[in-house]
């Protein structure tokens, strides 16, 4: 009996230790969001009292309170009702993200299906080249992209951001894993029953490989919602900028306003992640499977 009690105690202590180990990184991730939410509810005087040492030459330390002394929604009111340019940039970001994802559905999904289902000569080498291209950062391809877009007279237009992203290799890589997990015998059975290649793709491929496809869409939205380098390189007109370029333009005197804008900018990304979390996990698992 004593041995059972000791084992239960050791098991409970082990679980408590694991809980504390996992709780620390979770708090480190959540803490910036809590600071963001609390800062958006502070007025300019209270916020200035806390963060002014960071922008002055004083020797005081920055302090903070998770619960404001006098919560106010003044910043949200100013942002939503007195700042029309915020909505222009908000819908610019939405337009870029939606158009890019729609284009990737038309380009990346058939490409991933072709790589996964049709085994032709050198198809594995070509897919490996795709993976290598996926690893190239934007800084490597920025100059060549700029020259091509300049020749096509697309600079300073949203097409300069949308068209290169439509042909990104990353959604091909993620969708490939979902399609590759479909048994070949199932596809052959559909063909024997008289289904054409397009019917097999629509009726079997997309429903069974949707996990990889949706995970690519979720990760794509999170990436393109916060685009920074591409708009800075290809867009000069500020009215064409996405919301991600609007926030760095705010000074510390507009800190409360910036907190509110950050919270609203965060909402679509959190919403998309919450909806697609399960598909995202499955898609990442498929992308790690070996052939």
TrEMBL record:
Domain ABC transmembrane type-1, chain residue ranges per copy: 90-276
Transmembrane segments: 16-37, 94-115, 127-149, 161-179, 200-222, 252-275
CDD domains: TM_PBP2 (cd06261)
Coiled coil: none
Keywords on record: Cell membrane, Membrane, Transmembrane, Transmembrane helix, Transport
Places the protein is found: Cell membrane
Membrane topology: Multi-pass membrane protein
GO biological process, any: transmembrane transport
One Pfam family recorded for the sequence: BPD_transp_1
Stored InterPro entries: MetI-like, MetI-like_sf
The protein's name: Carbohydrate ABC transporter permease
